[in-house]
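Hi again,

Forgot to attach this to my earlier email, sorry! This is the prediction with flavin mononucleotide bound. I've pasted everything inline since the attachment limit keeps bouncing my files.
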Amino acid sequence: MDNPKTFRQCLGKFATGVTVVTCADQDGNPCGITANSFSSVSLDPPLVLWNIAKVSNSLSAYMNAKHFVINVLSTDQAGLSSHFAKSDHTLFRDIEYSLSADGAPLLPGTLAAFECRTHEIHDCGDHYIIIGEVLRFTSSEKDPLLFYGGNYRQLGD
Ligand SMILES: Cc1cc2nc3c(=O)[nH]c(=O)nc-3n(C[C@H](O)[C@H](O)[C@H](O)COP(=O)(O)O)c2cc1C
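Structure tokens for the complex follow:
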């Protein structure tokens, strides 16, 4: 790869939704990280994935978590996305949330939520691929928050 910057820009041509992946860390503290690497994998069994950078400050929380939640953000939740893109992913003070049956934070007002059991973790380059088995899911009729070319967008832009 001779130019990582243009590679990154080219990857940004793929429009995505935005999620905040949450779990409880080893001390039971809530943990959340903004991620747009979410993807569906399998319908039967129901599997989804996301990728976490090996340099992430919250890597050990997700590597050890038995459960996590994929919170899919709605169009008015760009502030939450920016909040959980900060280096301290345990910043839940002033953030409204409830706990899933498995103890991972559920953010209110999202478009959808997938409550997962950690199924497999694959070592892949500078990231780990975390695959989850979906145990429960909810959705609403809101519009999605989109990410394209390094910027937040909304449907109809
Ligand atoms: C829209 C968006 C999508 C992101 N997607 C991912 C992702 O899929 N995986 C990941 O590890 N980090 C992703 N990040 C970065 C993380 O949110 C993280 O906060 C950032 O790397 C800083 O935290 P750290 O210092 O713990 O690494 C994304 C950030 C933004 C704004």
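The first helix runs from residue 4 to 11. The mean pLDDT is 96.

That should be everything now.

G.
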